Amino acid sequence: MTIRTATMADLPRVTQLEAACFPAAEAATETSFRARLAHYPNHFWLLEEGEALVGFVNGMATNQPHLTDEMYACAALHSESGAWQMIFGVNTHPAYRRRGCAQRLLQRVIADAKAQGRKGLVLTCKEALIHYYAKFGFLDEGVSSSQHGGAVWHQMRLTF
């Protein structure tokens, strides 16, 4: 398996995998991914096995310390020199789950954020996944103000 950053040519596969991983109310649209790929393709990591897209992680860099719903909606808020790497989604194809794929991607994203001199990473997750992200050193900061998809989200932060 290999990890690389995305290009606009990956748009159809990324959109399809997102739809397989998240409920419709929470899944990013093709339009949203198009904007993200236009603004920060090197903050969009793909895990592939041969020609198959196994998983991906994406998110903008910003100086704002908290992940907001506005960030999901407006890719132009990305700041390449931002202090914090936000993570908008950790996606693994259902056929590849429980094989360490998300772990592999997250380790790469964490390493890249450190190498880029960021303060750390921020993501939101549902309560059931708090323990998973805690394995990487993320700390639960409590319920987020996010209304994304109508779900309850916890903000998690990994500070270097």
Summarize the SSE layout with pairings.
Elements: E1 2-5, H1 11-21, H2 30-39, E2 44-49, E3 52-58, E4 61-62, H3 69-73, E5 84-87, E6 89-92, H4 101-115, E7 120-125, H5 130-134, E8 139-143, E9 154-159
Parallel strand pairs: 5-7
Antiparallel strand pairs: 1-2, 2-3, 3-6, 4-5, 7-9, 8-9
Helix pairs in contact: 1-2
Question: Can you describe this structure?
Answer:
- The chain is of the alpha+beta class and 160 residues long.
- The chain has one domain (2-159): Gcn5-related N-acetyltransferase (GNAT) (Aminopeptidase, 3-Layer(aba) Sandwich), CATH 3.40.630.
- 29% of the residues lie in helices and 28% in strands.
- The protein has a five-stranded mixed beta sheet with strand order 4-5-7-9-8. A four-stranded antiparallel beta sheet has the order 1-2-3-6, sandwiched between helices.
- Strand 2 (44-49) and strand 3 (52-58) form a beta hairpin.
- The radius of gyration is 14 Å and the shape is globular.
- The two termini are 27 Å apart.
- 35% of the residues are buried.
CATH architecture: 3-Layer(aba) Sandwich
What gyration radius follows from the Cα positions, in whole Å? 14 Å
Biggest β-sheet description: 5 strands, mixed
Number of DSSP helical runs: 5
* Sheet/helix structural class: alpha+beta
How much helix is in the residues?
25-40%
First CA to last CA: what distance? 27 Å
In the CATH hierarchy, what is the class? Alpha Beta
At CATH level 3, the topology is Aminopeptidase
Mean pLDDT: 94
Percent range for β-strand residues = 25-35%
**Helix-strand pattern:** EHHEEEHEEHEHEE
Low-confidence stretches: none
The count of β-strands is 9
What is the molecular shape? Answer: globular
> Would you identify the CATH H-level superfamily?
Gcn5-related N-acetyltransferase (GNAT)
Which strand order spans the largest sheet, edge to edge or round the barrel? Answer: 4-5-7-9-8
Task: Provide the domain count.
Answer: 1
